[in-house]
């Protein structure tokens, strides 16, 4: 039997998505469970295992599945398959998730952080297709990053590369979750953006609302996004000079702010980066949206089982 399917799992702070994908990363089946309904690590792992088991015993997919990939919202040792911690899900510390899942499911498992997984998805099937040197950025609660260099995901000496959200923007500034200070993430993570919006509008406002307002021409909303674009563009200008990128692909909830944000990023890069590098780089929106996690996880599984 030719095993041609993979299981892609996107373990997010909000949803746990489990899908079966074919060798072209077409989604054959997808299940979505709310992450918060599993209060403990063990319950979450059990839910994940039981969903995968159902697929493994199904007639449709059963013995055709060759491996499992998991994208997770936090730092991971890709080689050892250990989750260091999750900034937004309590109770996870140095969890050997790869080993646990392989033991319970009897299939090869590969694990990486969500930004790396999204980068693989966008590189093989999305906005970065056909390019060689790409920085993929997820703009959400945190600012995540993945680097494709020379057509390969660059992981670094401890499998921890790509953290564009933790490049310092200033010498001094607010402390960051990572232990540093004045990181990009403390200025443009969505908590900061929403806090700024709350101060200006004197009420709570969602990210979607802020984007809709900006796209309708609300000057104050546009200023918030423009300012975020200048901060992101400044750090991207440094990345562009350092790496001479083909493109920066931007995904995550904040990417929906649209043209006002992207234009501000582009203008800042043009004015701050070196001419040759600035001229080359494209700034584009991620294409795969909420499916990027499961698609990238399936690619991870396929690469790990050497069937890609
Ligand atoms: Zn940081």
Describe the structure.
With 308 residues, the chain is of the alpha/beta class. The protein is 39% helix and 22% strand. It is built from ten helices and 13 strands. The strands form three sheets. It has a five-stranded mixed β-sheet with strand order 3-2-1-4-8. Strands 11-10-9-12-13 form a five-stranded mixed β-sheet, sandwiched between helices. It has a three-stranded antiparallel β-sheet with strand order 5-6-7. α3 packs across α10, α6 (207-215) crosses α7 and α7 crosses α8. The mean pLDDT is 94. Bound molecules: zinc ion. Zinc ion binds next to loops.
Quick summary:
The chain is of the alpha/beta class. 39% of the residues lie in helices and 22% in strands.
Helix content: 25-40%
Element-by-element helix/strand order = EEEHEEEEHEHEEEHHHHEHHEH
**Terminal Cα separation, in Å?**
17 Å
Q: Say how many strands there are.
A: 13
The proportion of strand residues reads 15-25%
Averaged pLDDT: 94
């Amino acid at each position: 039997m030719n095993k041609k399917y993979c299981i892609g799992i996107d373990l997010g702070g909000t949803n746990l998505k489990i899908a079966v994908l074919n060798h072209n990363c077409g989604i054959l089946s997808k299940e979505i469970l709310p992450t918060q309904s599993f209060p403990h690590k063990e319950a979450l792992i059990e839910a994940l295992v039981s969903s995968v088991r159902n697929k493994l015993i199904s007639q449709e997919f059963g013995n055709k599945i060759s491996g499992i990939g998991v994208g997770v919202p936090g730092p991971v040792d890709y080689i050892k398959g250990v989750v260091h911690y999750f900034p937004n899900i309590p109770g996870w510390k140095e969890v050997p998730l790869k080993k646990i899942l392989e033991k319970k499911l009897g299939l090869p498992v590969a694990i990486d952080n969500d930004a790396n997984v999204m980068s693989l998805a966008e590189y093989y099937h999305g906005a970065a297709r056909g390019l060689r040197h790409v920085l993929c950025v997820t703009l959400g609660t945190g600012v995540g990053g993945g680097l494709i260099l020379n057509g390969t995901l660059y992981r670094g000496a401890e499998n921890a590369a790509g953290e564009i959200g933790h490049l310092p923007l200033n010498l001094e500034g607010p402390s960051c979750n990572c232990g540093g200070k004045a990181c990009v993430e403390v200025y443009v993570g969505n908590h900061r953006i929403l806090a700024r919006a709350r101060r200006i509008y004197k009420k709570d406002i969602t990210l979607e609302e802020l984007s809709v307002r900006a796209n309708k021409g609300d000057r104050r909303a546009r200023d918030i996004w423009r300012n975020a674009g200048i901060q992101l563009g400044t750090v991207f200008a440094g990345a562009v000079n350092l790496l001479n990128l083909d493109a920066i692909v931007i995904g995550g909830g904040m990417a929906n702010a649209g043209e006002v944000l992207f234009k501000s990023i582009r203008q800042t890069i043009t004015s701050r980066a070196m001419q040759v590098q600035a001229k080359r780089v494209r700034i584009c929106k991620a294409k795969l949206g909420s499916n990027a996690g499961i698609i990238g996880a399936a690619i991870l599984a396929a690469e790990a089982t050497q069937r890609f």
